[in-house]
Every structure is written in C-alpha cells, then in structure tokens.
Write a structure and sequence with these properties.
35% helix
Length: 210
C-alpha cells in the first residue's frame, strides 16, 4: 500500500466499520433496487400493451415499443451504472482501512472538452483535492467533493482540511472522506496508473494502525 510506503497512518479495522457508513451504503443500495423495479414495471407494461394490440408491426405497436423502450433504457442504463459504482464502493470499504493523507486544494491541468490544445488534447485547469507525497509534491488528485458527499459533516468539519481519509488504491480510485470517515464520496482516477497492471488490495486487520 502506497500510504504505508510513505509512512502515513493506516487506521485500524475496515473503513466500512466507521459508524454511519454501513447505513449510508444500504440507503444508496436501496436506490439501485428502486431503479431496477421501475425498469421491470415498464418492461411488463410494454409486453402487456403489445399483447393487447396484437399486431407487433402496426404503427401503434411501433410507437408503444419506442416510447416504453426509451423509458426502460433511460431508467435501466443509469441504474446499472449506479449499481456497478455501489458494488465497487462496498468492496473498497470492506477491503481497506482508512489511510490518512496530507492534502491541499490546487488547480490541476486536466483533459477537457474545451480549453488550451496541446499534444492532440484540450487541457483546462480545475480545482482538485491533491493527495501529497512526503516531500509535499502531488501524488494524485481527485475532483473536489463539495458535491456528492454522502453523510453528515461533523460540527465544524466542513474544511478546508490539511488531511483527508482515503480507502482504496490511489492509482485507480477509491473512497475519499473528511477526517473521521464522514461524509465520504466514491472517486475514480481519470487516467489510472498502470505500472503494475491492476489495483493492489491490502486487506486491513484490527491493530494495523501506522
């Protein structure tokens, strides 16, 4: 684990065991089930209406298929993406303990749809949370989590912070949290490092604080 190599504190136990985290995950996972239910209801309704119409090639059948098919896709695709993110989120919080990283908020050049063009890409500056190496240089950065926080801020903890908690592999992404573990946000690297090919998973154990 890179945080360990840097000599940073690794909190004992699993990140999932932080009070309040499990309840937030379950609430988010209920949203996945509701989305799947809505898509299933639309699919059943589509089948019922087509059976009532009788002729699948009629203009009405085509119109109904297009309308409900669009609704199913509009609900189903985001639900699948949301489900995938929630599964990754739970796996990370179950596998890793919290790593305590020094951080700063800085403007970082990122690939963008607009902005200055160089090396065949458009670049723009974006304010990001930068996790720092021991020498104060950037180790990696993530989009600022002002939006998308899950969970309450403890009194007086809205920041800015000089440390953040992180669970996961910083080369690929993970869960970023305010000190104390709440609130948190699932984050990913735009261009994940691939020096070792795959994320390293280091299972946390009680008493493993650095």
């Amino acid at each position: 684990m890179i945080a360990e190599e840097y000599g940073y504190e690794i909190r004992p136990g699993r990140a999932l065991d932080t009070p309040g985290v499990e309840a937030i995950l379950k609430r988010r996972e209920r949203g996945v089930r509701l989305g799947a239910l809505a898509a299933a209801i639309n699919a059943v309704l589509l089948g019922y209406l087509l059976a009532r119409i009788g002729d699948p090639t009629s203009p009405l059948s085509v119109l109904v298929t297009l309308g409900l098919g669009f609704a199913i896709a509009a609900i189903g695709v985001p639900t699948l993406l949301w489900r995938r993110a929630r599964r990754k989120e739970r796996r990370i919080l179950t596998t890793y303990g919290w790593q305590v990283w020094p951080c700063a908020t800085r403007e970082v050049q990122v690939v963008s749809a607009e902005g200055r063009r160089a090396n065949g890409r458009h670049w723009a500056k974006e304010g990001r949370v930068v996790l720092l190496r021991p020498d104060g240089q950037s180790h990696c950065s993530f989009p600022p989590p002002q939006e998308g926080w899950e969970g309450p801020f403890p009194p007086g903890s809205k920041g800015p912070h000089d440390h953040m908690w992180f669970a996961g592999d910083t080369r690929f992404g993970g869960v970023l949290a305010a000190p104390g573990g709440l609130p948190f946000r699932y984050v990913t690297r735009t261009n994940p490092a691939t020096s070792s090919g795959r994320p390293r998973r280091t299972r946390s154990t009680p008493g493993s604080a650095g």
